Amino acid sequence: MDKDQILQMSRNENDGQPDEWEQSIEEQAAQLGKGVGLIACILVVLLAEFVLQNRDLGRGAWIVYFAMEGSSDLYKYLKTKKRSKLIMAVLELFCAVSYVIIMILFAVL
Q: What does pTM read for this prediction?
């Protein structure tokens, strides 16, 4: 079997699968998106707190952010079994649930 046949077999075998370069771009895009999401949450919290005097809006932003980060880290833990990812997932999901409870308590009281 020559080099061209091996390359063609590899292409056929991996058809539709992203290569390492595409996976790297996806990972970098996800990290950038998380960073922009964090900045957006901080801006929403500051706007809600100091301009609108509506803390519930800020809490809602944190619920979304921590739920997003926690679920992402939980998925990473399930795939890699890295304990640090599990610890971060538990902390982030705890924060999300805490903000939900705080919102409910303030709405009821």
A: 0.69
